[in-house]
Write a structure and sequence with these properties.
Elements (H helix, E strand, L loop, with lengths): L52 H9 L4 H15 L8 E4 L4 H13 L4 E6 L6 H12 L4 E5 L3 H15 L4 H18 L3 E4 L32 E2 L2 E2 H8 L14 H6 L3 E4 L8 H12 L23 H12 L3 H11 L5 H11 L8 H7 L4 H10 L6 E4 L2 E4 L11
Parallel strand pairs: 1-2, 2-3, 4-7
Antiparallel strand pairs: 5-6, 8-9
This protein binds zinc ion.
Length: 407
């Protein structure tokens, strides 16, 4: 291995794969607040035994007294429970399996009165639209769909792709702020997200506190906000928009969240979170149906199936970090004891690199970029320490199956 090889995004120069799952040490902790492509990313921690922090957390989860956690949840909900027919808990939802599980459990097991709120996907898939509707029709949950200005959103997605190689960033921003933003509008004091991000390798400390910090969701001056790698102020001037066009993207300030006494929590703190079990629950209780066919880039049919943008999100993570959709899905399933590491590695070899040709035309139209420019951009995102040329084709230097160019 050439130690002097250039790395992009401040990624670790030496690629290592977790001994327990198939994730590598190139996985960034969070890509939401990315400001520019050269920004150094914090990556998933590995311990001295070569085990990633997400796998360590799975071990820690076994030590948690879940009975006690459930009692804590009951106490918390009791404090917020409404008695006059008003909503008492807001569940940010995509209509996917996890949020459907969360909203349904809160309503029917814990007798709360949840409102599910959805930041509209870029391009709804048929399966996504049906599941979104089934949450109310079959699941009996009230739901609110919030759709940002489509002209602005497609422009931001384009900028995010061209500036950051991260076309999903504006959507993730929306999903992140929609809870506090709409809770204030509806006068709801408790927000309950579903899963805990530590499950996927974010810092373990995040899991010690059942409440998330208001600073995670807020910004003090909207004009300073950076979306798609550019300041809103700049985008307004360059593309002739006004601040009004960005209303949906502006989160409440820390002061506004604190003064309205909104608490933001996540069910994963109180309940043992298992995506596959959420899926079975949602099928049973909210009319959730898997996609009609296997999702692009992975073997699964039930995770993140609502937006045609998702395959491009994972394709860009594959190009930037060498970690595609199968690596994420299979690692999670290894941790939850559904498949072995060897099975996961096999699935990675089969699906991780799959190109989302099915939606390419639609994606390029959506962001007004022609296909040649799309491919040029993709190739510019390949870090030299991860990719090399072999017989005129790009190849990963290292894979979990030890089949890379430099393995
Ligand atoms: Zn791991």
């Amino acid at each position: 291995m050439n130690q002097k090889m250039k790395t992009f995004y401040g990624l670790p120069a030496v690629v290592k794969f977790c001994k327990k799952c198939v994730i590598s040490n190139q996985r960034p902790n969070s890509t939401v607040e990315m400001k520019n492509i050269n920004e150094k990313k914090e990556t998933i921690a590995f311990d001295d035994d070569g085990v990633c922090s997400a796998c360590s957390y799975t071990r820690e989860k076994k030590e948690i007294n879940w009975k006690l956690r459930e009692e804590k949840l009951f106490e918390l909900l009791e404090k917020y429970r409404s008695k006059d027919g008003s909503y008492d808990v807001l569940v940010p939802s995509s209509g996917g399996k996890d949020s459907s599980f969360a909203a349904h459990l809160l309503k029917y097991k814990y007798k709360m009165n949840p409102l599910a709120v959805t930041w509209a996907p870029n391009m709804f898939t048929r399966a996504g639209w049906n599941n979104f509707n089934n949450l109310t029709r079959v699941g009996g949950i009230d739901s609110f769909l919030y759709t940002p200005n489509g002209k602005v959103h497609s422009l931001l997605t384009k900028l995010a792709f061209l500036n950051l190689g991260h076309p999903f960033q504006p959507f993730i921003h929306g999903q992140k702020i929609i809870g506090p933003k709409l809770a204030r509008k509806f006068g709801i004091k408790l927000i309950m997200y579903g899963e805990n991000q530590a499950e996927y390798g974010n810092p373990l400390e995040d899991n010690l506190d059942p409440f998330m910090k208001p600073t995670f969701f807020s910004i003090d001056n909207p004009l300073d906000m950076i979306l798609g790698g550019e300041k809103i102020d700049t985008i307004m001037k360059k593309y002739n928009f006004t601040l009004n066009d960005f209303s949906s993207y502006i989160p409440p300030s820390v002061k506004e969240i604190e003064s309205s006494d909104i608490k933001v929590s996540f069910l994963g703190y109180f309940e043992q979170w298992d995506p596959q079990e959420c899926y079975y629950y949602a099928v049973e209780n909210t009319g959730f149906k898997p996609a009609y066919e296997r999702s692009i880039g992975t073997y699964s049919r039930y995770a993140e199936i609502d937006d045609k943008m998702v395959p491009f999100h994972f394709y860009t993570t594959f190009i930037k970090f060498g970690i595609g959709r199968t690596s994420y899905d299979a690692s999670q399933e290894v941790r939850n004891g559904k498949i072995t590491r060897a099975e996961a590695a096999y699935l990675v070899s089969k699906f991780d690199s799959e190109f989302p040709s099915k939606y390419l035309k639609e994606f390029c139209e959506y962001i007004s970029v022609n296909e040649d420019d799309f491919y040029r951009k993709i190739d510019s995102l390949r870090s030299p320490h991860l990719w090399g040329m072999n017989g005129g084709e790009w190849k990963l230097r290292h894979t979990v199956n030890i089949t890379g160019l430099d393995d």
